[in-house]
Amino acid sequence: MVHCDIEKAMDKLKLKNIRVTPQRFAVLEYLYTYPGHPTVEEIYKALVDKYPNLSVTTVYNNLRVFKKLGLVKELTFGDASRRYDAVTTEHYHVVCSICGIMHDVEFLEPQQIKEYVEQKTNFTIAQYRLELQGICPDCAKEGRQLPTG
Ligand SMILES: [Zn+2]
Ligand SMILES: [Zn+2]
């Protein structure tokens, strides 16, 4: 597993004098415990029962604060959807082509691939992203199919 440390994140917030409200903590905790790289809407839906005052805007604003402090990474996609990743070091993802859930995978050292590509191409690689796409166990169990066409 790729690890992320919520205690360290809390320390960073305190260090920057950012007040950790129960809602803010809940958003952070969700990001750090749910492995699916949630969207703003997914975080909102997961927490609104427990925090009825929560709004999508609050979730979004919290994510912005976390992003600024380097506590989460925002992953953008072609269809303009965004997912949030609490693991901010380089790593790989496996993505469900049906529901979009995304998990981290430990694989070859990202650094090795970077060096290999730099040697082969003389490019200086600044950042990279590797995604393996497929069908997640939940979608497979439900018999969901990939949309055709
Ligand atoms: Zn799925
Ligand atoms: Zn990730």
Task: Give a verbal description of the structure.
The chain has 149 residues and is α+β, with helices and mostly antiparallel strands. The chain folds into two domains: 1-71, Winged helix-like DNA-binding domain superfamily/Winged helix DNA-binding domain (Arc Repressor Mutant, subunit A, Orthogonal Bundle); 90-149, 2-Layer Sandwich (Dna Ligase, domain 1), CATH 3.30.1490. Helices cover 40% and strands 14% of the residues. It is built from six helices and five strands. The chain has helices at 6-15, 22-33, 40-47, 56-68, 110-121, 137-141, and strands at residues 73-76, 82-85, 92-96, 102-105, 131-134. Strand 1 and strand 2 (82-85) form a beta hairpin. Helix 3 (40-47) crosses helix 4 (56-68). The longest helix is centred in the middle third of the chain and has 13 residues, at 56-68. It is globular and about 50 Å long. The structure holds zinc ion (ZN) (2 copies). Residues 96, 98-99, 101, 136, 138-139 line the site of one zinc ion.
